[in-house]
């Protein structure tokens, strides 16, 4: 009964482990047998095992060879049985490696990491964002979920690809949504604006439902969907159309040679906007004094938020009060 259970356990093992166990048992057995058959020539069991592996793998160094007829018969049996098993094992390893690589490229492998960033949708914005993170040498791991790509060769990129519908729980589980730190939902450029926003909001709901603590950044195209995106659980909402419309306006009616597109891109590549509450020790000081305080640490104070109203570059003599939020620009 014990042997039967052991036999069952053997066949439940993964193929590669089963083959490796078979090779190990077979080589140990032939090594022991040749040691018993020719103890003067194969003085230790390890010498016999070494000979069995070298012979069974068809390497054939020739440092140990059977001298008796019985030893040669054992060698023939080893070549007929062990050689085929070792060859089959090596072929199985190669096939498994190729199969795993193909599954990675097709997005069928579950991501095992943690504290990673999930990107929803493969488009030009996603590609540029990944390039920007790579350029700034960010160490985070990235997972891309997309259902329009059937294959994405994993050697050509530095992120993990998951194929499927991002609103499906099983697809999100493949991306290890429970251990993710951020999720970025980009609008689908192939859909109409209203449909793209609906898809983004539905994806946000699915993300929030699977991980209540994840920070979700959602891109919306139409202004009337901002409230719905907040209700769906988005922490940050990127309003692409509003942003681009403002830049177009600045470009058309600018009165200086500075081009807002290039200037803003250059700033965002090397600097980042941050906000923090006004420290208690700076309460009552004016904007210029507080600005000088942060310049010493290479941080530029560009404005404040007071009563939910943004004030960019307020008067230098304006005193800052308790409850103000500082808007800062600092190097990444």
What this model shows, in words?
This protein has three domains: 104 residues, Helix Hairpins, CATH 1.10.287.70; 127 residues, Rossmann fold; 63 residues, Regulator of K+ conductance, C-terminal domain (Alpha-Beta Plaits), CATH 3.30.70.1450. With 332 residues, it is an alpha/beta fold. The chain starts with a helix and ends with a strand. The chain is elongated and about 105 Å long. The chain has eleven helices and ten strands. One of its GO terms (cellular component) is plasma membrane. Keywords: Ion channel, Ion transport, Membrane, Transmembrane, Transmembrane helix, Transport. Its main location: membrane. Pfam families: Ion_trans_2 (PF07885), TrkA_N (PF02254).
